[in-house]
Design goal:
Elements: E1 5-7, E2 12-14, H1 24-32, E3 43-47, H2 53-61, E4 66-71, H3 74-85, E5 93-97, E6 108-113, H4 127-133, H5 140-150, E7 151-162, H6 163-175, E8 178-187, E9 196-203, E10 211-216, E11 218-219, E12 222-223, H7 225-231
Parallel strand pairs: 3-4, 3-6, 4-5, 6-7, 8-10
Antiparallel strand pairs: 1-2, 7-9, 8-9, 11-12
């Protein structure tokens, strides 16, 4: 990876003008999050698209899907559009300068999000990075309400969260009729506890059978076979 871009198998992400660069959390959401495979012309929403990475990964994984990525930072949106335009998926991915709270386009089959986590830490001095990393512009309550409002019945909402925030988030999703159906505990190594969880919630789920597992990212200096398998179609290992 250079300072200005990250090369994936099927597309390149330039991120020099984006507050949040390409990182493991975003790649995990893009590779693990639920996306429709069978439905004809499904619709996918990427909330807080940033560089456009997750939107492009979703388009690669779901070849029939149309994908909408939204973000509130204008400079980020412009660079995401450039990344999309240079990709093989430009005809199916749209990037809009829009807040989730303002989006009025219900009926998505899947929503993906690498949300801002940092509710209590000090805001960084850079305003662009602050908006990307901290929740004042997208508190968890608004994220959950937006997902419940915009998903089609049976639609899925996948995201990554800190372990410390997950239980309260799950309970708020339950109150919004978003049922936890998949859960992955992400551990940096086998000897360290999980710091992140990947979760999928399903709208109006009639039956709930939780699929739960653990993903260990690294074994010493090497990536684990499970991590390599998950990201094989994207990373240039």
């Amino acid at each position: 990876m250079s300072n200005g871009y990250f090369q994936f198998r099927q597309f390149t992400i330039h991120h020099d003008r984006c507050a949040m660069k390409v990182g493991t959390d975003g790649v995990l959401v893009g590779a693990w999050g639920a996306v429709p495979q069978q439905k004809q012309r499904p619709r996918i929403l990427d909330v807080g698209t940033g560089t456009g990475l997750i939107a492009l990964m979703a388009a690669q994984r779901s070849p029939q899907a149309s994908v909408l990525g939204i973000d509130i930072d204008e400079a980020t949106v412009l660079q995401a559009r450039e990344n999309v335009s240079a990709s093989p998926f430009a005809d199916r991915v749209t990037i809009c300068h829009c807040a989730l709270q303002e989006l009025d386009d219900a009926g998505f089959d899947a929503i993906l999000c690498n949300p801002p986590f940092f509710e209590e830490s000090l805001l960084p001095p850079d305003r662009q990075r602050s908006l990307a990393r901290h929740t004042p512009t997208l508190p968890f309550s608004d994220l959950i309400a937006g997902a419940a409002r915009l998903l089609a019945p049976g639609g899925t909402f996948s995201l990554i969260l800190p372990v410390t925030a997950f239980e309260a988030f799950r309970l708020d999703c339950f109150a919004a009729d978003l049922m936890l159906t998949r859960l992955c505990h992400v551990r940096p190594t086998a000897s360290k506890p999980a710091k992140r969880v990947l979760a999928t919630f399903t709208m109006h789920a009639t039956t709930v059978q939780l699929e739960e597992n653990t993903l260990i990212l690294n074994h010493g200096a090497a990536r684990t076979p499970e991590y390599e398998a998950l990201t094989h179609d994207f990373y240039l290992w």
